[in-house]
Amino acid sequence: MPKSIASKAIHKQYRFVGISPRSRSGCTTCKSKKKKCDEVFPKCGLCQRIGAECIRPSGKPNDPSKQSKNITKIAKPNTQQLPPISQPTLTEPMASQPTIAEPTTDINDLPIVPDYQYPASKQNHPSSPHSLLLINPNPLDFNLDTINDLEDFLNSQEFGFPTDVSVQAMVSAYQNTQLTHIQPLCYIPDRLNVKGKEKQYLEYFIHSVATNISTVPSETNYWFNFYLPMAIHDECVLNGLISWGGVFLDNTDSRRYLNLSKDLLDVNLCRNTDRADLIKNLACAILLQAVEISSGDVKHWVTFSQIAAELINQLGGIHSLVGSKEEKYLASNFAFHDVLSSQAMINGPAFKIEEYEKIYTSDGVEYIDTLQSCVGPLFLIINDIVNQSRKLKSQLYSNYYSAALLMRNDSAVDYYASPSKSLQFNPNLSPGTRLELLKQLDSKYQYFLDKLDACQPSNSELEYFTSIGQLVPHTQVFQLYQYISQIVLIQAFQDTPPSSAAVQLLVHQASGLLEELLTSPVKGVLCLGFVVVGMNCIGEQERQEYMRRVQRWQDEGYIIGNVRRVMEMIRECWKNEGDGDFLGKLLGVVRKLDWDLTMV
């Protein structure tokens, strides 16, 4: 483990992510980038890092005596030992203590996640406390200017996060060390009443989980700059983050905190009616959905997804969530998990693709998604390809995957498990209707081919990266999903079999990029790529190499429960040889296993 930070000659005492006011007299560069200037003279930290000229409004350095009251510097005397760093004296006022779950003798006695009965979103329910008539149309403002800049917190010499230790080593150290002896990764406000195992879980989320699943640098990671500040004031979010850390650390008590967070969300859903409260509820539902998915759940995450969809409807739809960066984060996160779910591939997404596209095309709010990198538009295209082909083929063929055949207990499920069965034209169609549907299939193929050619990462997203080294993995992952999109396209509209040269060429190119990106910052967005490549591995040698690649992906630290489920699905696909398309194979497996899977 890294050397104890208590041995430093000087240390700073920070709040959780800090709540000191944003500098009013910092340099113009920091103000333009909405960063808290450290006001070091002659050049602040940010200007030194990016090589910019450091210009102060007054032209003079700040008075050193005017230091933030929320930061205390303590000089270490030569003959005196500092108090334990795990017990800092914070200078913040006391407030009501959030509720943290009490220990229980048997975790299994707690309910997992019972179905939540949420109100209908229709406007013909004016008596509903969630009625659209009661929603404040003004965009939410979390007043993030009152939150101390996270970059200063992470980059502080005295309180940085350890970087010279592997994830596996840290997990081992955490699990085999007495809680009272664990060196805290950061200060957490006393008023949050987070102690013992709760603190251990929360620190692990901050140090490992939030960075491991992110594709972007810490300063643009919304788990840091959106969810952590919210957790200071919202018990539901706080317990959700604690649960998430527990899922990855030892998964012994994480369900307890998840259930507590869910109970708080249930209460909030019944009493909160204004826009700010609805946004907070949406943030919590999306958080709990992510916790369930990362644990390997294939059932309960859908409950939180449905709650989130209902809240989005109450807020006015996806298009109402593009006016601020925080709201856009939530809309993008929901879209990511929705369009890559098996249900959205089979029955269509919760919202129209045209609505989701507004997340990535609306002007005025620039950001890059923490989980998706710059690939979000391609994920929308892939979902649209699958659903548009399904709609046409279900009319053209009598034994394709029409809505009438999607019941789990339907006898047609045997066909889904054997996708090599030949498709049969619908005998009720006239020759003219059949010809028209075939023309529409060809027309849609050309449409999506052109759409893929035109799809490029936005400059506003790529501008977040300050070096070629940071940029390259994101351009590579975009190229990866261009290959994946083409595989799905030619199989969906041209019924090109996996054994064809066209598919195998694309699989080979995609596999090479997967290999390169396994240890990159974008490793958390490779799941769908592994799914499509795995479904199209046709030889025993290729399949063995594929499984070795997946194992390496996990060995490098991406130990997500959902990945295990995806691998189970791929093995199930390999049991049924055939040339079915992506939807046919996906549908056959998830119906056979009775799963609701999301490939994130």
Task: Note down, in words, how this protein is organized.
Keywords: Nucleus. Its main location: nucleus. InterPro entries: Fun_TF, Zn2-C6_fun-type_DNA-bd_sf, Zn2Cys6_DnaBD. Helices cover 50% and strands 1% of the residues. It is mostly helical and 600 residues long. The chain has 2 domains: 110-140 and 153-379, no CATH class; 382-593, no CATH class. The chain has a two-stranded antiparallel ribbon. It is globular.
> Whole-number radius of gyration?
26 Å
Order of helices and strands: EHHEHHHHHHHHHHHHHHHHHHHHH
Described by the principal axes of the CA atoms, the overall outline is globular
Spans where pLDDT lies below 50 across 5 or more residues: 1-22, 59-187, 403-420
Number of domains: 2
Structural class: mainly alpha
- Helix fraction? 40-55%
**How many DSSP E strands?**
2
Count of DSSP-assigned helices: 23
Distance between the amino and carboxyl termini: 32 Å
Mean pLDDT: 74
Summarize the structure in short.
The protein is mainly α and 600 residues long. The protein has helices spanning 28-32, 45-50, 150-155, 167-175, 196-212, 222-233, 235-249, 254-271, 275-294, 301-315, 325-339, 342-347, 353-361, 376-396, 413-416, 431-454, 459-462, 468-494, 501-517, 527-535, 540-555, 561-575, 582-593; strands at residues 10-13, 72-75. The protein has a two-stranded antiparallel ribbon with strand order 1-2.
